[in-house]
Amino acid sequence: MAETHDATTQPRQAPNNPGNPSDAGGKDGQREAILAVKDLTVAFGSNVVLDKLNLDIYRGEILGFVGASGTGKSVLMRTVLRLLPRQSGSIRILGAEYDEVSEEERVALDTRLGVLFQHGALFSALTVKENIQVPMREYLDLSQEMMDDLAMLKIALVGLKPEAADRYPSELSGGMIKRAALARALALDPDLVFLDEPTSGLDPIGAAEFDELIAKLRDTLGLTVYMVTHDLDSLFSVCDRIAVLGKKRVLVEGTIEDMLAFDDPWVQSYFRGKRARSIVRDDDAQDNHASKTDAPVPATP
Amino acid sequence: MRSASKRTVQTQTRSLAPWNRIPSAEIPNSKASVADATPCWRLQRWTVSVDDRRGLSVYECPPIRALKEESRFVTPQQTHQQADIAPDDADGVHLFRFSGSWKGNDIAHVASRLDELAGQAPDKSRFDLSEVTAIDTLGAWTIRRFMGKLGGSDKVELVGQKQQYIELIEALPTELKPPEKDKGPKGTLFQRIFTPVGRVVMSTWEDIVAVMFILGSAVRGAHLKVGKRGGLSPAAIINQIDRMGVQAVPIITLMSFLIGAIIAQQGAFQLRYFGAELFVVDLVGILQLREIGVLLTAIMIAGRSGSAITAEIGSMKMREEIDALKVMGMSPIGILVFPRLVALTISLPLLTIIANFSALAGAALVTRTYSGITFVTFLARLHEAVDYSAILAGMIKAPFMALIIGVMAAVEGLKVGGSAESLGKQVTQSVVKSIFVVILVDGLFAIFYASINF
After folding, report:
1. In the structure, what pLDDT confidence band is assigned to residue B18 with cuts at 50, 70 and 90?
2. Using CA atoms, how far apart are residues B108 and B100, in angstroms rounded to an integer?
3. From the CA of B188, how many Å to the nearest CA of chain A?
4. Of these four, A24, B32, B120, B225, which has the most CB atoms within 10 Å of its CB?
5. Residue B192 contacts A, CB cutoff 8 Å
6. Region of B279 on the Ramachandran plot (φ > 0 left; ψ -120 to 50 alpha; else beta)
7. What is the model's pTM?
């Protein structure tokens, strides 16, 4: 609750010590659940989409979220973001139950979340720079000059060229839209970022760069990332943990090894399918080679 | 000199290049101009003779009629034969010989014949596909369905040289299931009659709740955020006033001028019978200021700006921009709807004033032309006929109309779903509903004014 209280008293500021490893938290087993979903039930009419779902995301990790189409990945994300109503269950974000906090606290909580929608959802009437400045204008008391600088910084951070700043979303390519949307999601240096299929529609090189970017941001800014993805490369390369949604709940969560060992036909065919096999093989080869020197801190199963 | 050795060759497919070199004078039998016979494959039908004396090739063209007859887009190699089937009894099994092209339109005529043949239902049959020249999925499916009618792959054997045809046919499903419709319980007659009524009532109720929600949110202010810079964002409001108000001035002026002129003309003609032509000024003045001015301006704005608001908000909804605002902790109503509502509420009364002046000007011009009432007389009569209450009675309504248009447009805009169709539907709904409610409210005001003698 201390976190929340802190957030209410002042608008969220950029972390002073972004690289601090203690920020990543939880190497000593006492991991802080930045998002805790308990017994979540979501239904539309008589159609139950999620049934008593439980999910924890810990500070400083990248959680990859997979599931067959139509199992409710987007519904879960949108419910967590309160864009959809839920029937029952609790969602604690940053230690606060969203429905119980006051309105000021709620706004403060919102500033600590960043969301990258699948199609970017950039405001089409605004340029990229203005898009990034929307949340800043709303929550930070900065001069226009400072905001310009900050926006350009974010643009550089996500690997966009400075020229992109004054373009409108309709003038951008798919990859640039995703990057611009990520820049907007990072505008207020949030603690938790939701990414909805960040690499879908990108070419493999662009997707790999995006993955690297997200891993880099996690390492430097201490971001926690909730990533809905179908990109096996992303799952294998940047995700610390993976959760599989199926049968209206989280079927299994854990590392890649857990996935490969899990006995479920869908999970097996997903992680051991034709497309996954080559990656697994590559990974094994690499692991033997580098003897697991700098693999991202995986959660102990 | 020898006579030109005439060597008639059936040429192979030639590129267009030599064709272009043919001097038109050297096409003796041709009735065709060069332009008529451009597609290069037609060259195949041309005969080439070599005139040694002049070192030229002579191309001879078949009559143009022959060319026209086969002017279908088929490659020349294809002997274009339509699909056909011939049953044949051989050593105890029914043999069906399939021949020709089993593609697209070539199949249409054979489909009914297949149904006939399927009626006989032989015990065991064999399909011979050796003479099939081409096949596509429609052809394969037709054959597959025929197979199914004859008892499926147990009873039918496919033969033919082209293995890929057989594979294609066998790869198709034996039957296509129609998509399942989830049929709820049908319900009694009573339920079936009143369900739509109930739906309408519920959706009307939801509309009312949504209108209240938007009004409430708008009153509450632009930003959810506490503290600094709450409330108005002047830049957005002024931008909207420019778009909804200033840019609407020309059309509103023109429309009102015409309306004023038309009412004056008709009024003058009718009142002439009573010798009360001067009273047309009373008619136009009171009608325009109390009713027509604000009503027509509101209808025009509903069509012009209401639709724009719905379309803007709706497309933002479709592109998840509204969700993006929400997750940033901003109220979409405050950010998007509030400035538009304020702008409309400021613009519509001002436009009404412009409309009134314009209509009176139109009326003055027409009465002068048709009835010879001078401008001075017009103004003097107007001064007597119209008092402040008439002006006020019209102007009071304007902000209400503005709110109705803005809120209706916002409600419909937020109802837009994911499809382009729903955007179009909600824009229509927005305009229709706001015009309807505007007229309804105008009527209520008229009743109210009458009962308080205003």
Report:
1. very low
2. 13
3. 21
4. B225
5. no
6. alpha
7. 0.67
The closest CB to that of B327, out of A103, A110, A138, belongs to A110
Are the beta carbons of B328 and A135 separated by less than 8 Å?
Answer: yes
3 state SS of A36: strand
For residues B406 and B399, give the distance between their C-alpha atoms in angstroms, rounded to a whole number. Answer: 10
Q: Which residue type sits at B442?
A: D
Residue of B nearest to A78 (CA): B323
DSSP A207: H
Mutate to test the interface with B, among A138, A193, A195 (most CBs of B within 10 A): A138
* Beta carbon pairs, A and B, within 8 Å: 57
B328–A138 C-beta distance less than 8 A: yes
Read off the pLDDT of each residue in B168-172 and give the average, rounded to a whole number.
82
Measured between alpha carbons, how far is A255 from A252 in angstroms, rounded to an integer? Answer: 10
> Which tokens sit at B54?
């002049």
B330: contact with A, CB 8 A cutoff? yes
Burial of A240 (0-12, 13-18, 19+ CB in 10 A): buried
**Cβ–Cβ contact B323 with A under 8 A:** yes
Close Cβ partners of A165 (under 8 Å, ≥ 6 residues apart): A127, A128, A129, A151, A152, A155
User: What type of residue sits at position B242?
Assistant: D
Residue A284 is predicted with a pLDDT of 56
Residues of chain A with pLDDT under 70: 1-30, 276-301
pLDDT digits (tens, 9 = 90+) for B408-435: 999 999 999 888 899 999 999 999 999 9
| Confidence grade of residue B23 (pLDDT, cut at 50, 70, 90) | very low
**Helices B293-301 and B249-272, axial angle in degrees (round to 10):** 140
Greatest Cα-to-Cα distance within chain A, rounded to the nearest angstrom: 56
Whole-angstrom distance, CA of residue A179 vs CA of residue A186? 10
Instruction: Compute the average pLDDT of residues B247-273.
Output: 94
Of all residues in chain B, the one with the smallest CA distance to A116 is B324
Q: Which of A134, A197, A203 is nearest to A169 (CA)?
A: A134
Q: Å from A37 to nearest chain B CA? A: 18
Question: Which residues in chain B have their CB less than 8 angstroms from residue A106's CB?
Answer: 329
Could you write out the DSSP letters of every residue in A267-287?
Answer: HHHHHSSHHHHHHHHHHHHHH
- What average pLDDT does this structure show over B354-368? 95
Task: Give the model's confidence band at B118: pLDDT under 50 very low, under 70 low, under 90 confident, else very high.
Answer: confident
Q: Taking each helix axis from N to C terminus, what angle separates B420-451 and B307-318, rounded to the nearest 10 degrees?
A: 140
Q: Which residue has the higher pLDDT, B182 or B31?
A: B182
The two three-digit tokens of residue B225, written as one number: 């955020």
Are A192 and A224 in contact, with CB atoms under 8 Å apart? yes
Q: What's the CA angle centered on B306, arms B300 and B311, to 5 degrees?
A: 135
Specify the 3-state DSSP secondary structure of A174: helix
What HEC string does chain B produce? CCCCCCCCEECCCCCHHHHHHCCHHHCCCCCCCHHHHCCHHHHHHCEEEEECCCCEEEEECCCHHHHHHCCCCCCCCCCCCECEEEEEEECCEEEEEEEEEECHHHCHHHHHHHHHHHHHCCCCEEEEEEEEEEECHHHHHHHHHHHHHCCHHHCEEEECCCHHHHHHHHHCCCCCCCCCCCCCCCCCHHHHHHHHHHHHHHHHHHHHHHHHHHHHHHHHCCCCCCCCCCCCCHHHHHHHHHHHCHHHHHHHHHHHHHHHHHHHHHHHHHHHCCCCHHHHHHHHHHHHHHHHHHHHHHHHHHHHHHHHHHHHHHHHHHCCHHHHHHHCCCCHHHHHHHHHHHHHHHHHHHHHHHHHHHHHHHHHHHHHHHHCCCHHHHHHHHHHHCCHHHHHHHHHHHHHHHHHHHHHHHHHHHHCCCCHHHHHHHHHHHHHHHHHHHHHHHHHHHHHHHHCCC
Q: Give the pairing of strands A96-97 and A113-116.
A: unpaired
